[in-house]
Amino acid sequence: MLRIRHLPTLALLLACAVPLGGMALALVGLSPASTVRANNTESEMMLVHNVFFTVRDRSPEHAAQLVAACDKWLTGHPGTVFYAAGTLSDLDREVNDRDFDVGLHLVFENRAAHDKYQVSERHQQFIEQHRHLWTKVRVFDSVAQRRSSEN
Predict the structure, then answer these.
(1) Mean pLDDT, to the nearest integer, of 47-60?
(2) Where are the domains of the chain?
(3) For residue 13, how many other CB atoms are within 10 A of its CB?
(4) What is the distance between the alpha carbons of residues 143 and 151, in angstroms, rounded to a whole number?
(5) In a 3-state reduction of DSSP, which class is residue 102?
(6) Contact 55, 102 (CB under 8 A)
(7) Across the chain, which distance is largest between two alpha carbons, in Å?
(8) Domain 42-144 has CATH 3.30.70.100
């Protein structure tokens, strides 16, 4: 089994696989699942939880209010490796999806930590007390293997 250690190599393989419907991965003997899991099972890998909110009136004031609420309610949960919340960047390239106002980014040490976060009282209170601020929520969850910055 081929093990991919460098992100640029994986990105190149995936870039080739998209237009070919996965055929490029099959040609090198990889399945999509094997590229994701590499050396670990999914339960052992970090869980990356990205949430993109569109605020009700698209106002900077409500976006700032939502970021402050994220900072209050969604930080410090057990098993959190990384937390950040902020507003839409001014980058406006062809590839940028700009259909959101607030981005929330959490990395959990594993799936179990994420699952506990989802049902935690503070997370549920955040949703209940602030759902009036948004009209749309998009969630993107992925698994990731911890790598040093030297790889």
Answers:
(1) 96
(2) 7-37, 42-144
(3) 17
(4) 18
(5) strand
(6) yes
(7) 52
(8) yes
